[in-house]
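Researcher: Quick sanity check before group meeting.
Model: Go ahead. Protein one:
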Amino acid sequence: MLTGNEIRSKFIKFFEEKNHKHFESASLIPDDPTLLLTVAGMVPFKPYFLGQKEAPTPRVTTYQKCIRTNDLENVGRTARHHTFFEMLGNFSFGDYFREEAIIWSWEFITEVLKLEKDKLWVSVFTTDDEAERIWIEKCNFPKERIVRMGESENWWAAGPTGSCGPCSEIHVDLGPAYGGDENSKLGDEGTDNRFIEIWNLVFTEWNRMEDGSLQPLPKKNIDTGAGLERVAAMVQGKSNNFETDLLFPIVEEAGRLTNTTYGESPEKDFSLKVITDHSRAVTFLVNDGVIPSNEGRGYVLRRILRRAVRHGRLLGRTELFMFEMVDKVVDIMEGAYPELRKNIEHIKKVVKIEEEKFSNTLDQGIQLVTNEIKAVKERGENKLSGEVTFKLYDTYGFPYELTEEICEENGIEVLKEEFVEKMEEQREKARSARSVVMEKGQDSVIEELYDKYGTTEFVGYTELMTNGKLLSVRELENNRYALIFDRTSFYAESGGQEADHGIIEGEKLVARVLDVQKQKEIYTHVVEIESGLEELVEGATLSLTVDPVRREEIGKNHTATHLLHQALKDVLGSHVQQAGSACGADRLRFDFNHYEALTAEELERVEKIVNERIFMGTSVNSELMSMDQAKAKGATALFGDKYGSEVRVISIGDYSMELCGGTHINNIGKIGLFKIVSEAGVAAGVRRIEAQTSYKAYLAVVEMEKTMKRVAKNLKTDLNKIEERSEKVVEEVRDLSKETEALKAKVASFEANSLFDEVQEINGVKVLVKAFKDKEADSLREIVDKAKDKLGSCVIALGSDNDKAVFAVGVTKDLISKVKAGDLVREAAKIAEGNGGGRPDFAQAGGKNGAKVEEALATLKEILVNTL
C-alpha cells in the first residue's frame, strides 16, 4: 500500500518521464491580485491559460499547496472537506491535448496506483463525444460506467468570457454501503458520499465571446487536478481522508494534546478533525508569510486558528496547544516542503502569540454567547439578533463566525443581515468622522494638462539640473506657487521618499522648491518666490536645479532601508516584508511585518549586519527590465504595489535586490554609519525601526556618549566602570526597597494598632471607618490587612485625600454574605467622582475629588448601620 508521500513522488516521476518539467509548489500568496489565496493547482499558471503570457515550457507537473475556506463550516463534519489540501497536476500549454491527458491519467491510476478498474467511473461533458470515444477505444473503459453531465459539473471557465472548455472527471465507487443500491450510477440522487471524484481533466479549447458564442482557441491547453488527500484515501482503502497516513498521525496528536481518543463519539471526532485540518492550514499560511490580522489573508489565518482553539476548548483543553500541533505537521510534511523545518520556530511563535491573545477572551466570549442563547430559549424564541452578535464582536472581540457556529450547535438561528447592517452603520460613522481636504480644481488641472501634454519627463536619476518649459502656473497662499514643467530633475514624494528641494531660476527669477508631488506622472513643484515674479509665465524656459546635498542624504537613508530590509530577513526570518517606509534627509523609518518586539540582541545583530555591509563599500546598481525578468532574478517586490511593464531594479552586490523607483547613492560606503535609535510596534503584527545614517548617526552616537558621561558622573565613577557601578547601585536600591517595605509594614502595623481605639460596634460587628491625608493606596491596603488580622471579624473602610480620593475597603470572609467590599467601595467612589471595585473581601477605588473623602466615608457608615 502506497503512502501519501509515495503517491506524491510517483505522480511527479510519472509525468517527468512524459517530458514534463516539475515546478515546485508556489506560495499560498498568489501573484494574481484577484485572488486572496492560492485555491487550485492551476493558479500559478493562470496567465498562460488566459494567453496573457507565453509559458516557459509546454509541459509542467506540480504538487501545489492550496487553501479554500468557502466551505469552512463543513470541515470536520464530512470525510473530504479541507481548508488546506494538496493538488497534483499536469499541464499542457498548446502541446498535447485530450487523448494524452486521458490515456496518461488511466495509466497512472491503474498501473501506478493500482486502483481496481471495476470500481472506477468517469463523467464527460454532455456533448463531448471525443472524450467518451478515447475512454472506450484507448483505455478499454466500459461505456456503461461513463456518465454525461452538464455545465454545472463538467465545464470549466475562467469567467463569463474568455478561455473555457469541457472536462472529464474520474471517480471511485465505494459501494452501496455509502449510498444507493446495486443499480445506482454516478450522479444518481443520494450517492454523493459513494462516488468520490479523485481527478479532474480540463480540456481548455474554447474562447467564449461577449455574445456567448464559442470560438476555437488558437492553442489548446490541458489543466488537471487530483486531490492528494482523496487519492491517498482511495489507495489506502479509507473512506475518510482523515484516516490516511497524511492526516491520521495529526489526528492522534490532537487527541494526545486534548486527552481524547478518536472514535469516542461523533462530536469529539468532529473537533479532532477540525484541529487536524486547521493546524495544517495555519502552519502553511504562517510559513508563507501571513501574519494574523483583521483583514485579508491575515483574517483567514486568524479565523482558522481561533476556530481550532475553540474546538480544543470543547475537548477540555484550556492550556495553549495549537503551537504544539505545528511540530507534528512539520514531521509529516517536511519531506515535500523542507522549508517548514527551517521556519518551524517562527511558525510556532506566531501561532503561540495569536493563541495567547485569543485564549484571554475565548472563555468569556463563550460564556456570553451561552448566556444569550439561554435567554433566547427562555423567551421561547429561536433567533439571535444582530444587535447581540454585533455587541459580542465589537465590544468583546468575539468572532461572528464562532457565535454563528455555537448558535447552530444549539439550534439557534443568527440574523446575519442585522449583523451586517450594524457593521455598515459603524463604518458609516467612521467615514463621517473623517474629513478629507483637497485643493479645489487640482484634479481638473492635472487632467487638462495630461490630455494636452502627456506626462512630465523625469530625468532626475541621471541629471540634477535641467531646463524645462513651464506649462502651468497656479498661485497658492503665502507667496507660493504650483509649477508644472514638461521635464524635471526633481524627484516627487513617492514610496515613502521625501521630495527633492532646490532652485528654479530664470534671468531674474529665483524660486525655492519646497515640495514636489505627482499625479498621473505629472510633477507639481511647490515653490516660494524670492525674486523675478514677472518671469513666471507659461511657455517660459527655466532652469531646474536639485539641491545635491539633500538628494545625497536622502539617497543614503533610502539605500540603508534596502540593507535593513535584508538584514531583518537574515535575523528574524524570510517572513519579514516591508509594510511602509519614510526616507528624508535626516532620518529613516522602516515598518515591517513581525509578531513581537525585537530583543536587544536581535537589534544589535541587525545593526551589525548593516554596518558590516556599509564598510564593504559595495556598488549600488540600477537596471530597467521587465517584471518577469526581475522575478526571475529574485528581486523583492512589495505586495500591493503597482509596477509598470518595465521596472527599475536596485541591486547591492549579491546581498539585496529590490524593485524600487526611488533615488540612491552609487556606493553603500557613502552611508558611513548606520545607527538604530528606536524599535516599536505600530499595529497588529507590524513593527517600526527608526534609524539615522552618516553624520546624523555620528551625532546620535556622540549624544549617547555624552549621556553615558553624565550618568558616570552622577554615579561617581569612570566611563569604563559605569556598568559595574550601575549594577552595584541597582543592588543597593533593591536592598533599600526591601528595608522601605519592611518599615512601611511596621508603620502600617503601628497605625492599625493606634486605630483600635476608634473601632466601633454596629449591630455586634466591629467597624473601623477612618479618613487620612496624603496616604497612598498601598499604605491603606497595608492598614486594612493588619487591622483584619488583629480584629478578626470586622469591616474596615479607609479613605485618603491626596487632592484626588483614594479608598480601600476590607470585609472578613464571615461577613461577606451581609456586605461586600466591592459594593461599598463603589458607593464611596461615586461620591468622590470616580469608580472602582474589587473582590467581596477587599476592594480599592479612586475619585477625582479628594475633598469628598469625609462625605463618602460617612455614607459608608450609614450603609453599614442599615445593612449589618
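Researcher: Fine. The other one?
Model: Protein two, sequence then structure:
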Amino acid sequence: MPQTKRTLTGVLSGLAGLVGLSVVAGVLVTATVTPVFAVTGAAAAQSIDLFEGLPSNLKVDRPMQPTTIYSKDANGADQVMARFYDQNRIPVKYDQVAPVLIDALLASEDKNFYTHGGIDIAGTIKAVVGNVSGSSTNGGSSISQQYVKNVLLQECEKGVPLNDAKRDDKLNQCWVDAASAVGSKGIARKLQEIRYATAIEKQYSKNDILIGYLNLVNFGGTTYGIEAAAQRYFSVSASQLNAVQAATLVGMVQNPNAFRIDMPGGTYDCDKDGNNCKNSQADGYKDTLTRRNYVLSRMEVLGKITKAEYEADKVQPITPAIKTPSSGCGDAGGNAFFCQYVKATLENDTSLDSVLGPVKDRSDKLLRGGLNVYTTLSAPMQSAALQAMADHTTPTIEGMDFGAAATTIDPKTGRILAIAQNTGFTEEQSDTATSGLTQYVYAADSAHGGGIGFSVGSTYKIFTLIDWLEKGHSVRETLAAPVKNYTMKCGNSTMTTDTPIKNFNNQSGYTGTPMQFTRDSLNSGFLSMASKLDLCEINQVAQRMGVHLGDGGSVTDQNVPFDVLGSKNIAALDMASAYAAVANNGTRCAPYAIDKITGPDGTDIPLPPPACTEVIKPEIAATAAYALQGVMNSGGTGSRANPDDGTPLIGKTGTHESAQTMLVDSSTAATTAVWVGQANGDADIYNYYSHDVNVPDIRYGLSRQITAAANTFFPGGAFPDPSQSLLKQSYTNLPSVVGMTVDQATQTLEGAGFSVSVGAPVQSNLPADQVAQQDPGPGQAVTGSTITISPSNGQGVSVPNVVGKTMGDAATALQQAGFQAVKGTCTPGNGDDSGTVSATSPAAGTAAPKGSSVTLNYVKKNCQG
C-alpha cells in the first residue's frame, strides 16, 4: 500500500504528516521517561502534546479468580471441596515465587526492569516502526508494558459475559485490541501502553508490578498466573520451581497456546485430520524446548546460572508432570452432591441477590468472582451418611433406574449437615440406570441442583394432622375410617375420591383416633380426618411450613383428595424442613448450606441471617410430635428405623404407587429424610432388591444407621409435653334413635359425629327394620364413638301391665294377650287371699314372643296356704 494512503486514527490523526514516525516514537518515549527535556522543532513539540493528552490513569482491578468451596474436616480445619473458574488462577505474593523464576523472567524479558522508568525504549521504537510497516505485531515491551497489556486484556475479557452467544469472537477481539493490533491501531495501542506503563511505575513498587504481571499472564488454555502454571505443568508450587522448570514457564508466555506442554499430540499446524501437530511429545516439544533454552542462555549471560549449570540444563528434555485441575464438583468425591447443592445456591438462590447480585450475573460471579465459600457440611455426619448409603444401596439395579438419597439438617438453625446419594456424580448428562452417574441432587429441588422432586407418600399426612389440631380437634377423638370413597370440601367446592382408597398392606379400615391413624399410617383414617377439614387449608399448612413442589410451583396450585396421601412431587429436603419445624417447637428455619462467604481479599461478605419463622404454635407442634412419636416407637410403621438408643424421635413413613418410598425422622437436634425409589420412570420397586433387601425396605436400615450417627454427634432431648386440651376425649349429646328405621338412625348418628354398628335383630313389637335398641342409650357419649343399634325382628308382643290384679285376673289378661302365666315368688303381705300380682317377668311393656311365659310374682297373707 502506498505510504501516501496510510492514515492514523484517534490521537495520532495527522501525525504522519508532521514528522517521520520513527522520530515521533523516539520523542514520545523520551518524553515519558525524561522529567526535563528539550525539544526542538514544532512537529516534535506537537507530537508530545498529543501524547500527553492520552489517558494515564489505568484501572488496575482484581483479575478474574476462581471461586473455592470449603468444608471442615474431622478436626475442624478448612479443606477445599471444589473450585470453579473461567481462568484457573491462584494469586500469590512476591515472596511465594522461587527467585530463579524471577531471574528467568527478567533475564529473557526485561533485564533492565529495576532501573528503567517503565519503558524499553529501543524495543518500543522498533515495535512502533514495525506497526507502521505492518512487519511486526509483537516485541518491544518491558514487564511494566506487558503488565499493562494484560490488565487491559483482563478488563476486556471480564466485560464479555459467559453466556454471550458471540463470546469467542469477542474474546478474540479483546486479544487483538490489547496485543495484536497493527498499523495505526497498533501504534495507538503501543503509545497508550507506554503512557499507562510510566504512570503505574509512579503508583506501584517494582515488586508489585512484577508479581501483578505473574499473577495475570496466561500460560496456555485456561491456566493463568505462575502458581496455577507451576501446579498444572510440573505439579509443584511456584515457590518450588527449579531453573529448568522456571525457564520453561517463562518461555511459554511469549506464545502460551503454541508453547504449552499439556497436549502430547501437539499444539499447532496439524494436518486435516487434526494429527501430526507441531510442538508435540513426539518432537520433544521442540518449540518450547528452543524457547526454554533461549531463556537459560540469557540467564547464563547475565550470571544468574553458571556456564556448567547452563550446559547441564539445556540438554534436559521437556518433562512435564501434568496435574489437571477441575472446575466443578467432580473432585469433591462423596461430597459432590452437597457441592452441587452449594453451587446451585450460588447461581440461583434469590435470597442472595443483595450479596451476589441478580441471578443472571451469577455464573460470572461463580467462575470469575474469586469468592471463598464456607459450607455447613458436618464431616462426621457426612461420612456416616455416605457409609450408610454404601452399606444399604448400590449405584444401579438392573431393570430399574434406582435412586436413593439422604439428608440431615439442624432443626434449630436450618444448617444442612449432610447430603448423600447412591449414585456417582458427573457434570454431564448420563443414563443413570446403566452408568450409576448423574448430576442431579436427588434430595433437592430444581433450584438447588435437583429435579422435580418425588411423590412423598404418607409423609405428607403431617399437614392433615397439624390442620386437625389447629382446628381444635383432639388426637384422641374417635372417627370411623372404613375403606370407602370419601368426600371433602375445598373452599366452596366439594370433591370425592374416584375409587375407594386402599390401606397399606390391604389393611382394613377401623374406627380409631388420629393417634392410631398416625401410628399405623392408615390412609382411610386420614381421609376420614380430611373429610371433616378443608383440603385447600391442608395444602396451605404445607405451604406455610415451607413446602413447595420440586419444580418450584406451589402445593396450593392444585387441590385433589389424594393430596392428603402425598401424591405431590416434593424434595426430601423440603419434607425434612417441615418435620424439623415440629421438632423445633413450631419454628421453621429454612435449610441453608453456606455459613460464610469472603471476597478475594478475605473480607467477609455479609449473608442474610438464618430465616427462622414460627409456622405453627408451640402447643400444636408439641401435640403433633406426641402423635408422631408413636410412628417411631414399637408397633409404629417407622419403628424399624429407630436405632433404639434412648433418643426420643418423631417420624413418618411414606410410600407412593409402588414407585417411591420416604422416611423422615427427627430428634430435637437433627432431622433426617431418606428417599428410596424409582429415579425415572414407573417400575414397581417391589420387584427389586439391593443387598438382598427389597427396595421399599431399604429406607429402614438406611435411616436407622444415619439416625444413630446423628444421635451420637447431635444428641437430642425430650420433646415438650403435648397440650392437654388437644389430648382430651370430647363428648357429644347422643340422641335416641329407637323407633327410627336403620337408615334414618344411621344418618342421624353419623350426622351427630358418631360411628354406627348395626347389631342382630331383637324381639320387639316394633315393625321389622325399626330400631328397637341402642347401646349406649341417649345422653353424653364420647365424640366419634361407635353406637350399636339393633333393629326389631317384628315378632314381639308387648307384655300387658297386670300388677295389682288378682292372680286369676292377671292370668286371664295374659292369656288374652297370647302369653302363658306362670306362678312366681310369693311374698307375705296384705294381698288378696289368692294373691295379688306385685311384678312380672318380663316387665310390663316389654316385647316378648307370643306363647312365651310371663312369670307372676305376688303378695299373699299366707304364702303357706
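Researcher: One line on it for the slide.
Model: Confidence is low (pLDDT under 50) at residues 1-44.
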